[in-house]
Amino acid sequence: MSNYRRQVLRRTALLGSGLFATASGTTAAAASDTDAGRLEGTVTHFGTPVTEATVAADDGTEAATDETGAYTLALAPGEYTLTVTAPGYAPVSTDIAVAGNERRTRDFDLEREWGPGTGELEVFATPVGGGSTIPCEIAVFGADRYDVTASRGSVPDGDRWGSGFDVSEGWWEILVTDAEGYSDGYQEVLVEDGETAFGWVQLEAGDDEISETGQIEGRVVDPNGTAITDATVRAGGARVSVDGEGEFDLELEHGRHRVVVDAAGYRRVVGDMQVKFGRMTELNVTLRTSASRGVPERE
């Protein structure tokens, strides 16, 4: 078997090009007016910074987010339509008015999308730093889920798997498990239309497992920050009541879940949350009795 197992060397520059892109820094076009307003904020995906997203105003001014998801725009006084785009994410637009010498903050939360194009995703599991691929189980998650037994530690492997995964363009998550002598591994990869992306999952020696479930923990309060002790939280087919401090926790399968929060005398709050393998996501919810709706605060 060792004659057929792939060797993955320290080709960080090559393999890294299919993984996390690194922003070169925030850029902002300067408005010609001396009384330009300043618009700044962050672009995230369920609390995780989105790097190299483009925040563009309809006058042609644009900025790219940095490694923290932050951006800054200098805009002349006026009304604008802002559009935020990033590879693998659905675009978001909003209208905003900017006054002279005004400093405003506008944050954006993007959702991932897949298609319409397709690409190929090749996956390799090796020890940290490279070496022979390790027999394992591979699961990839995105628009769909694919599970394979990689007896030679890679897809493709030159035998059973003649090519990589044929997937929709977008972000894909890779979970590697059951590699004898190694802990489970995880990676995210952006697959672009017509391109081949490489998912290089480097495994640490050990026996740590990554759970296929995650947790949502949080607190339900009123606008004054006082705990609402009779609230209920529903997600993924589960329903829990908050405790005497307004706190709750839910264990859910990896993926996106619709969260519904109710309490007698308060407006219902509905939102989507992303649950990650073996991780805890904090969700604090404010319920209001007025016509305005409370919105989940992601931290």
UniProtKB/TrEMBL annotation:
PROSITE patterns on file: TAT
Domain of life: Archaea
A GO MF term: metallocarboxypeptidase activity
Entry's Gene Ontology cellular component terms: extracellular space
Biological processes annotated in GO: peptide metabolic process; protein processing
PANTHER family linked to this entry: CARBOXYPEPTIDASE D, B, PROTEASE M14 CARBOXYPEPTIDASE
Protein name in UniProt: PEGA domain-containing protein
Lineage, highest ranks first: Archaea, Methanobacteriati, Methanobacteriota, Stenosarchaea group, Halobacteria
